Give the backbone structure.
Amino acid sequence: MGVDLLNIEGLAKLAPQEPVVMVNLMRFRERSLDGDGSGWDAYLRYSALTVPMIKARGGTLLWTGNASTVALGRSDGNQWDYLALVYYPTVTAFIDMMTSADYENLCDPHRRDGCAEHVIIATREAYSKFKVG
């Protein structure tokens, strides 16, 4: 599997048919590993391929933004360039996408080329003003 850091064990502890919002934290490379532009450019290629895969599984991109600064807490080790909140109708839908051959062969190479670090945190809703659907 292309996503060698996917925490299948941790995801298996979540209710598989419950909705999940994935908080994506990204730090980009100055230059893409494939030599085709910046890390941001590679990430845009990744997004163009991944967003349709998310939508095909009933998910949606809720919000994205540039990370400005750490407002509270330790700043060392917490320098991010970009954040994205991605809704999936089920944990199973997320795992299905991340373990698919299309994700591994088409999308993940661009993610690896562009991101020096990419952390995804699975969250369950406690309160939200977001309306999905």
Q: What stands out?
A: The mean pLDDT is 93. Residues 39-56 form the longest helix (18 residues).
